[in-house]
Amino acid sequence: MSEEPQLEPGVPIRSTTVLCVRRDGKVALGADGQVSMGNTIVKGSASKVRTLAKGQILAGFAGSAADGLTLCDLLEAKLDSVGGNFTRACVELAKDWRLERRYRRLEALMIVADKERSLLLSGTGDVIEAEDGILAIGSGGNYALSAARALLRHSELDARGLVEAALAIAGEICVFTNDKTKILELEAPR
């Protein structure tokens, strides 16, 4: 994932900031809606987060929409094939993504979360679990990650509030991130 995907030679497409936060037994995953081609905003309300496995898993992707949706479908198939074991399905998907020729060119990153863990998946075989309960990807990912970490340490906001505030901050800094957000939530078992 060293280069941004391109529609026209030399014109990178940048899209979406995705942020996942865990706090007090809840997980929230949100993304903004901006898709830019070069210096032009081509869409302001793209949806890059969704639920999988009948609402038991949250998924968000940054990069190509077609590739991100394909990865969501592949993860659901993996979940079915491993009896619903979330971590194993994610590892199997990352392995196939890296090794199988037909998947190697998928241009996206994913954050997926169930009630117990949040994972970042990449086409290089990475399956990274958040140490502090926060993961971020996309054009404004580092801004959202920084804001969420500061807010987690210095506020009492719940998971959803942290995602809302951190995405708003990222949108104020990153020109490829806007304020049209979609946020999904899960509550951990008690």
TrEMBL record:
Any GO BP annotation: proteolysis involved in protein catabolic process
Domain of life of the source: Bacteria
Give the record's keywords alphabetically.
Allosteric enzyme, Cytoplasm, Hydrolase, Metal-binding, Protease, Sodium, Threonine protease
Similarity annotation? Belongs to the peptidase T1B family. HslV subfamily.
Q: A single Pfam family, by name?
A: Proteasome
**Organism field:** Enhygromyxa salina
PANTHER family from the UniProt entry? ATP-DEPENDENT PROTEASE SUBUNIT HSLV, METALLOPROTEASE TLDD
Q: Where in the cell is it found?
A: Cytoplasm
Q: Which GO terms describe its molecular function?
A: metal ion binding; threonine-type endopeptidase activity
Tell me which EC number(s) this protein carries.
3.4.25.2
Q: What is this protein called?
A: ATP-dependent protease subunit HslV
The reply on keyword ATP-binding is no
UniProt entry tagged with the keyword Cytoplasm = yes
GO CC aspect terms: HslUV protease complex; proteasome core complex
